[in-house]
Amino acid sequence: MLELYGKSTSINVRKVLWLCEELELKYRHVGGDPSSDADFNARLCRINPNGQVPVLLDGDFALWESNSICRYLAARAQRHDLLPADPRARALVEQWMDWQATDLNSAWRGAFMSRVRRHPDYPDGPVADASMGRWNALMGLLDHQLAHTGAHVVGASFTLADIVLGLSTQRWRMTPGDKPDLPAVEAWFARLGRRAGFAQHVDNGVP
Questions:
Q1: What is the tens place of the pLDDT at every residue in 88-139?
Q2: pTM confidence score
Q3: Contact predicate 185/193, CB 8 Å
Q4: For residue 112, what is the domain's CATH number?
Q5: Which residue segment(s) compose the domain that 29 sits in?
Q6: Do 41 and 121 share a domain, yes or no?
Q7: Which residues are CB-neighbours of 67 under 8 A, at least 6 positions away?
Q8: Coil/strand/helix, residue 79
Q9: Do 36 and 24 meet the contact criterion of CB atoms below 8 Å apart?
């Protein structure tokens, strides 16, 4: 049986949990926080040298990095609707997944760590304001894309790009701060709400 390591409040673990529901997979979720549970951290570091979650075990095969795990599970299930076999169609899905993991994640750090995590290294002030501004600008880019497709991130069909960006959008919606009206994002987010696992793993009150 598949094993997934990581606390269910982690945005990256929640990506994989949501996908597991979409795929109707049988799996064992091994919850734990490596920052506060020494035994869990030691076990985690044996399978991921970075000591970070999530980690997927499929028999003797270990995989880390949430977007890579999502790609693997979709390919393993031969779900070409989620991760197309056609090289160009697949590249478009992966393009938005990589954008989420790089540009979007980098933009939100100051605002999120300050206003949600209340981390002492991230005081609420100009740095957080600038972070929120960059985050809003990138969410505006997503809104433009969704207005263009009229449905999902890369087109008419739901893909892995919608899973990873759905989690990011939920975090943006829950972080305090001035935000622009993004009607295409809001309409898309409402459509995602009808998907299996969305209420449990995405729009569950955890930013």
A1: 999 999 999 999 999 999 999 999 999 999 999 999 999 999 999 999 999 9
A2: 0.96
A3: no
A4: 1.20.1050.10
A5: 2-76
A6: no
A7: 15, 97, 98, 100, 101, 160, 164
A8: coil
A9: no
